[in-house]
Write a structure and sequence with these properties.
Radius of gyration: 54 Å
Shape: elongated
Largest sheet: 5 strands, mixed
Distance between the termini: 177 Å
């Protein structure tokens, strides 16, 4: 009985020991979840990695006291215990192991690898740090479509751009030439946790937009400079100008007139006509395509000649006013030269008259002054002889005052 009792005691002791070890082991694996401890001694960083590339997970310890480091996956399975890999997944490889770091690489990352990885330190109490792996999935090639391929000026058009199968959701921007435009976007989630983004752009087109690229730019952390574009094709009414081939300058009777109508549009104008406003084109005028020729001009041909061009979008015109002068009429430029010369001559004559008036007054004033000096002293003289003798200009002063004539 005593032996049996000892065996029972031994069994109970072993069982107790096993229970204690199991409890300690469970506490090691789940202690942080039950009793989370935040410590600055254990450090891990979050990671963003593109699908198919390699992620580096680093568990770092400051001032380690020889405590053991291990790395767990999101399912809390041990990937590495110290430098040993219990998990049978060859994509995990040891990059570095020391007392202060456990660094592991995960190659060919897929969406299933996303989650929270746990760095665990066997200290008292156990410590944990977390490295969240975010898997980036780049979008497929953006698809750009328009409501219509050809747009008429003044009408509104709509262009759609779609970015499919990305994670996270992409952002779409629009550029028309060098100007950024604002579109409206919608995000949809697919069954496999991917995102599809669709953006609409609406604007009114002008003729200047013809041939201008509209660019759909997809912004996503997994790709750079991801874009597609579509060139605008805009139809517009003709632009019409009239070029004078003959004559150069003023038009006189007997001369010839030649005009060329230049019309540009999209589509190219299919018809160009010459008409005279409020009258008929002279019977002997020659119209060849877009050219108008009238010979032997006279004043009866005066008026407004109009070139009218049209295409499928609309009709536009330009006017030329014909004014025929007499054959003997002095050229306007020559009359202008004569007027300028006459004005200059008038100014010169006026200036000379003013100068003569000023000089005449100057000489007249100085002559009066001379006579006044000659008559000084005559006021107090008893007779004419005395007055002449007393005058400053008399013989008594002839020695003091000498006059020189040049």
């Amino acid at each position: 009985m005593k032996q049996v009792s000892n065996m029972a005691n031994t069994s109970n002791g072993s069982l107790a020991t096993l229970l204690i070890l199991f409890t300690i082991s469970a506490a090691i694996h789940t202690g942080a979840a039950q009793f989370p401890v935040q410590s600055q001694n254990l450090i891990a960083d979050n990671i963003s990695v593109v699908e198919g590339e390699t992620a580096i997970i680093s568990c770092r310890v400051k001032n380690n006291d020889d405590s053991v480091i291990q790395l767990l996956n999101p399912n809390r399975q041990t990937i590495y215990f110290r430098d040993v890999r219990p998990l049978k997944d060859a994509r995990f490889q040891l990059v570095n192991f020391s007392d202060n770091e456990l660094r592991v690489s995960l190659s060919n990352v897929s969406l299933s690898d996303e989650g929270r990885y746990v760095c665990q330190l066997y200290s008292d109490p156990p410590q944990e740090a977390y490295a969240d792996i975010t898997v980036l999935i780049p979008p497929g090639n953006p698809i750009i479509e328009s409501r219509e391929d050809i747009v008429r000026e003044g009408n509104e058009t709509e262009i759609t751009c779609t970015s499919m199968g990305s994670k996270p959701a992409a952002k779409i921007r629009w550029m028309k030439g060098n100007k950024e435009l604002l579109g409206k976007s919608k995000v949809e989630t697919t069954y496999d946790r991917m995102f599809t983004v669709t953006s609409w752009l609406r604007f009114t087109v002008r003729r200047e937009d013809d041939g201008v690229p509209v660019v759909c730019i997809v912004d996503h952390p997994a790709v750079k400079d991801f874009q597609t574009q579509k060139y605008l094709e805009v139809q517009y009414k003709p632009e019409v100008t009239i070029k004078v081939e003959l004559p150069q300058g003023l038009i006189r009777e007997g001369e010839s007139l030649e005009l060329t109508c230049q019309a540009k549009g999209k589509p190219q104008p299919h018809q160009v006509n010459w008409v005279k406003v409020d009258d008929d084109v002279p019977s002997h005028a020659v119209i060849t395509g877009s050219d108008l020729y009238i010979g032997n001009l006279n004043k009866s041909y005066n008026g407004t000649y109009r070139c009218v061009a049209s295409n499928s979008v609309g009709e536009t015109y330009a006017d030329y006013i014909l004014y025929v002068r007499d054959q003997q009429a002095e050229p306007e430029a020559q009359r202008l030269d004569h007027a300028v010369i006459g004005g200059v001559v008038a100014v010169v004559v006026f200036a000379m008259l003013c100068l003569l008036i000023v000089l005449g007054r100057y000489f007249a004033r100085h002559k009066g002054t001379y006579f006044t000096h000659e008559a000084k002293g005559a006021d107090d003289a008893a007779d004419a002889d005395t007055a002449i003798i007393n005058a400053e200009g008399g013989h008594n002063n002839s020695d003091e005052k000498k006059e020189y004539y040049i």
